[in-house]
Amino acid sequence: MAPDAVGGAVATDVDVTADLLTETYQTHYTSLLRLAALLLDDLGSCEDVVQEAFIRVHAARGRVREPEKLLAYLRQTVVNLSRSTLRRRLIGLRLLPKPLPDAASAEEGAYDALERDALIQALRGLQRRQREVLVLRYYADLTEAQVATALGVSIGSVKAYGSRGIEALRARMEEHR
Q1: What's the Cα-to-Cα distance from 145 to each of 28, 32, 72, 156, 159, rounded to whole Å?
Q2: 9 pairs with which residues across the strands?
Q3: pLDDT tens digits along 153-177
Q4: What pairs with residue 3 in β-bridges?
Q5: Contacts with 134 (C-beta within 8 Å, 6 or more apart), sequence order
Q6: Amino acid 162: pLDDT
Q7: What pLDDT digit, counting tens, does each position of 105-123 carry?
Q8: What whole-number distance in Å separates Cα of residue 134 and Cα of residue 170?
Q9: Which domains does the chain have, with CATH numbers?
Q10: Helix/strand/coil for 9
């Protein structure tokens, strides 16, 4: 005979009665719940799996060939439903969008804006050449040679203006704090 939906053979002569299923439920519900708990991670899912197993076996009770194997059919159904539950969870996790990186709080954003404003004010207070060298070197990310060419000065002058500009900028930022 061909196997049915709950793992048994299709019956022709003996049926599992609703009374036998009710008795099996009352006697073995807790042990089936423990079985599901070993396979799943939360009580709600375990209860759902066991309930679904009883519903499926109840729907197929007329096809269960040997009533004494009812508990075995229920156990196998609980295992199969637990696997399906875990499989659906894994698929769901794969389909979830990736979390966005942590966004700065409003306070952090405000603090960053204040720092940026203070830096801009401090840069404006530097000598023209110092400001130009620092902006080209660190904001525009040019090399010392590229800054020297852009400003029409020597590399040594770029180094000197840069060094003095950083010191003056550091002093101004400390004053701001």
Answers
A1: 83, 77, 81, 10, 10
A2: 3
A3: 999 999 999 999 999 989 988 887 7
A4: 9
A5: 123, 126, 162, 165, 166, 169
A6: 93
A7: 777 777 778 788 888 888 8
A8: 12
A9: 18-95 (1.10.1740), 124-176 (1.10.10.10)
A10: strand
- Alpha-carbon gap, residue 163 to 165, rounded angstroms: 5
Range 155-161 contact pairs with CB under 8 angstroms and sequence separation of 24 or more: 157/129, 158/133, 161/127, 161/129, 161/130, 161/132, 161/133
In this predicted structure, what is the pLDDT of residue 106? Answer: 74
- Residue 143 pLDDT > 80, yes or no? yes
Whole-angstrom Cα distance, residue 125 to residue 37? 69
Please report, for residues 6, 48, 66, 148, 168, the alpha-carbon distance to residue 143 in angstroms, rounded to integers and kept in the order given: 74, 66, 85, 9, 21
- Enter the tokens of residue 164: 């003095």
Per the listing, tokens 């499926």 go with 56
* 39 close to 79: Cβ distance less than 8 angstroms: yes
Q: If you search the block for the tokens 């060939």, which residue do you land on?
A: 65
Identity at 76, one-letter amino acid code:
Q
CA 3 remoteness from chain centre: 40
